[in-house]
Design a protein that fits this description.
Strand order of the largest sheet of chain B: 4-5-10-7-9-8
Mean pLDDT of chain A: 88
Radius of gyration of chain B: 33 Å
Largest sheet of chain A: 6 strands, mixed
Strand order of the largest sheet of chain A: 6-7-8-3-9-10
Radius of gyration of chain A: 18 Å
Low-confidence stretches of chain A: 1-8, 10-19
Oligomer: heterodimer
Shape of chain B: elongated
Number of strands of chain B: 12
Distance between the termini of chain B: 26 Å
Order of helices and strands of chain A: HEEEHEEHEHHHEHEHEEH
Largest interface: A-B, 26 and 22 residues
Structural class of chain A: alpha/beta
Number of helices of chain B: 13
Distance between the termini of chain A: 24 Å
Structural class of chain B: alpha+beta
Helix content of chain B: 55-70%
């Protein structure tokens, strides 16, 4: 991977503020989320407060129904909290309207999903380019950035492939390239390895670790303990609250782990 | 997203389901094609009718002897004996809007030349008749006023009569027999074809001096009709009023009594024919327009299916930053592109259909730029109208739900 390219893409200009302190990117304070399902109210989040600094690599864990997905949707500006404030890079986004939120999702947040969610019959390059279409970037620049992002995830030679012609790991890497193309502040990955075999999972984690090392802030939802071991901090949800929030004692290096794994012939 | 990218996405989406897109457009294609063909036929018919009415004679009025109510017995048109040659002379003298007038009476007779014979209509009139109707001669000339005065045995032939009696010889100067009377042919008329108003062969006729007909053939002294030409088209209404007043006076018709004659104005007939063809065009056009409406509904239906099918795609687009307006525009443009392409193909189809109908049935077709422009505008409007709801539905999707959609 080209480190210079990675740097220019992944790291926002202000990695540290003037005082040398690491900048706080996400500040969620006392977030509540209540869904109204007919007569019953579902209290999905019951007062969640989290701070994430520039360059962190956080795993959010918990059983299904623990509120981790709801929290992730709020972090990703796909949903609004019922109460509480959410500051993204110091800007309160918790009460923005839909149009403004779409703009935030476009420029500040990169999404990676469990199901890859690439557009079928659309090349890797065009899939990667997609967010730039909504960002008023001129055509040559769009293409340049998409190429850069694909090179960054090691798929520079597969730009004209359709998703159906790529393996699961490659598809997820296209999805990561797409998430990076608008140079977001954070990368949100929702079970990015959920559909992948264990070796490919580690390969994807290797890509994410490399990006994180270049300064990219990553928040990853997973229910696999093994996967969370590749991150630096793990937050465990239960019943709509944060149960545990602690640094990962000794993060595993995905590149090292890969060397010990058998290569499966495809 | 900018317009060019949106258009590209729309074309890509349509190309992905070629058969479906083509079938969806079919409604619009047929609708636009039908409208163009129907309006083309209607306008062509109108133009032809106007031309034929104009051919009947410039500024022409037709005075016919009327029906009469004899002690409860209604007699048909032409049954009265009150319309006479003196009325014609009075019209020319006393009605300032009348330029010329020619009396007319008729009969049917068997015409014989050599071994051939032909049953036809005989009209008795004066030489003015040919001028008023603007009938030209292909050979010979009209009979003269002297022929009328002298009740000469001379005749002018219509082209159908010429064809049936004189296959290849020139009839001018030859003698034919009408009943037992010999007539010398002095002229042959240029063929005029079917009459649009009466639907009869205008060339199946022989014309003789009025006096000859009255004295030697029918023995009647009254007229069946008078052909009148007004000084101008705009004067034809004045001429109509003047003739009516004059004839009521001359025929001593009291206030409140019905006319014993009728004056028909060709300008009226032209308006009537025009109105008739306008209504026909409107009816046909409306039926074709309903096809267009159905085409729009098909587009709406397919777009709704498409939105459901692509729920996940919409979710992805929203997650990576598409606004509601972006999504709405994308689907709206897809619908408009479909209806406009359908409209364009429909124009080609409609013009082709028109020419096919024109050459098969021999109907004249008039394709106007206005009709084509209107078709394009309507097709676009249909795309927007019927694409709006599906696009709105797509834009209102919740991105979280849409991403979860299987």
């Amino acid at each position: 991977m080209d480190a210079r390219v990675a740097n220019s893409l992944a790291a926002p200009e202000t990695q540290k503020d003037r005082t040398g302190q690491e900048q706080v990117i996400i500040q969620a304070r006392d977030i509540h989320k209540i869904y109204q399902l007919g007569e019953t109210q579902v209290h999905a989040l019951r007062g969640v407060s989290v701070e994430v600094k520039q360059g962190e690599f956080v795993a959010i864990m918990g059983a299904s129904g623990s509120g981790k997905s709801t929290f992730m949707n709020i972090l990703g500006c796909l949903d609004k909290p019922t109460s509480g404030t959410y500051l993204l890079e110091g800007i309160d986004v918790s009460q923005m309207d839909k149009k403004a939120l779409a703009g935030i999702r476009n420029r500040k947040i990169g999404f990676v999903f469990q199901g890859f969610n690439l557009l079928a019959r659309t090349t890797a390059l065009e899939n990667t380019e997609l967010p730039t279409l909504y960002a008023r970037i001129d055509k040559a620049e769009r293409r340049r950035r998409a190429m850069e992002a694909l090179n960054l995830v090691g798929l520079g030679d597969r730009v004209d492939h359709f998703p159906s012609q790529l393996s699961g790991g490659q598809q997820q890497r296209v999805a990561i390239a797409r998430a990076l193309v608008n140079r977001p502040s954070i990368l949100l990955a929702d079970e990015p390895t959920g559909n992948l075999d264990s070796r490919t999972s580690v390969e994807v984690m290797e890509v994410l670790q490399a990006l994180n090392r270049q300064g990219l802030t990553i928040i990853l939802v997973t229910h696999e303990h093994d996967i969370s071991q590749f991150t630096k901090r793990s937050i465990v949800f239960r019943d709509g609250k944060i149960r545990r929030d602690e640094p990962v004692a000794r993060p595993a290096d995905a590149a090292e782990v890969l060397k010990t794994m058998p290569v499966i012939e495809e | 997203m900018d317009l060019i990218s949106t258009l590209r996405v729309a074309f890509r989406a349509l190309a992905r389901n070629k058969l479906r897109s083509a079938l969806t457009m079919l409604g619009i294609i047929i609708g636009v094609g039908a409208v163009i063909a129907m309006v083309g036929i209607g306008q062509g018919a109108d133009q032809t009718m106007q031309q034929q009415i104009a051919n009947l004679g410039s500024n022409m009025l037709f005075v016919s002897a009327g029906s009469r109510n004899l002690g409860g017995l209604h007699l048909g048109w032409g049954a009265t004996k009150t319309l006479v040659r003196d009325d014609v002379a009075a019209m020319v003298k006393e009605c300032p809007a009348v330029a010329a007038a020619a009396p007319g009476a008729g009969a049917t007779a068997q015409v014989v030349y050599g071994n051939d014979n032909w049953g036809t209509r005989i009209t008795g009139t004066t030489p003015e008749y040919f001028d008023i109707r603007t009938w030209a001669f292909q050979g010979g000339t009209s009979f003269t006023p002297d022929d009328v005065t002298n009740a000469s045995n001379v005749a002018v032939l219509g082209d159908t009569v010429r064809k049936n009696l004189f296959a290849s010889t020139d009839p001018v100067g030859k003698t034919i027999r009408v009943g037992n009377l010999p007539f010398m042919v002095v002229g042959v008329l240029v063929p005029k074809g079917q009459s649009p108003a009466m639907n009869e062969d205008q060339d199946d006729i022989i014309i003789v001096p009025l006096t000859t007909l009255q004295k030697k053939i029918t023995g009647q002294t009254w007229l069946r009709f008078v052909m009148v030409s007004a000084r101008s088209r705009s004067a034809s209404y004045a001429a109509q009023q003047q003739i009516e007043a004059l004839l009521r006076d001359r025929h001593r018709i009291r206030e409140g009594e019905d006319n014993d004659f009728a004056v028909r104005n060709l300008a009226d007939m032209a308006d009537l024919a025009s109105e008739a063809s306008r209504v026909t065009t409107l009816v046909f056009g409306s039926v074709a327009g309903i096809t267009l409406l159905v085409g729009g509904i098909i587009i709406m239906n397919v777009m709704l299916v498409s939105v459901t099918e692509r729920t996940r795609e919409i979710g992805i687009r929203m997650a990576i930053g598409a606004t509601e307006a972006d999504v709405q525009r994308q689907f709206l443009i897809e619908a408009v592109v479909m209806s406009l392409i359908g409209g364009a193909i429909g124009i080609v189809f409609g013009v082709g259909l028109s020419f096919m109908i024109s050459s098969t049935f021999g109907w004249p077709i008039l394709i106007s730029g206005a009709a084509i422009g209107a078709a394009v505008a309507v097709a676009g409007a249909i795309g927007i109208f019927f694409g709006y709801y599906p696009a709105q539905k797509a834009a209102r999707l919740d991105p979280i739900e849409a991403l979860r959609y299987e």
